[in-house]
Amino acid sequence: MSKAIKLSESLINDAVINGKAQHRSAPKQIEYWARMGKIVDENPDLPSTFIKGILTGIEENKAGDISDYKFG
Predict the structure, then answer these.
(1) Cys-Cys with 15: which of 4, 7, 26, 55 at CB 3.0–4.6 Å?
(2) How far is residue 66's CA from residue 61's CA, in Å, rounded to a whole number?
(3) Which ranges constitute the DSSP H helices of 1-72?
């Protein structure tokens, strides 16, 4: 379900710039920020880079891009 919401011009401009750098549309960039913000807010003890790594790992697993980890 999608809904129209009002956002500040500066947030939209930041989303356009950051989205282009990460190959996302402005709406997708704002969705990404919201998702990351929610996860970081729910897990204040975890660094955002760790959270990004977990999310990347989940998507790699879904895509079948996995291998056994060898300890030592």
Answers:
(1) 26
(2) 6
(3) 9-21, 26-42, 48-62
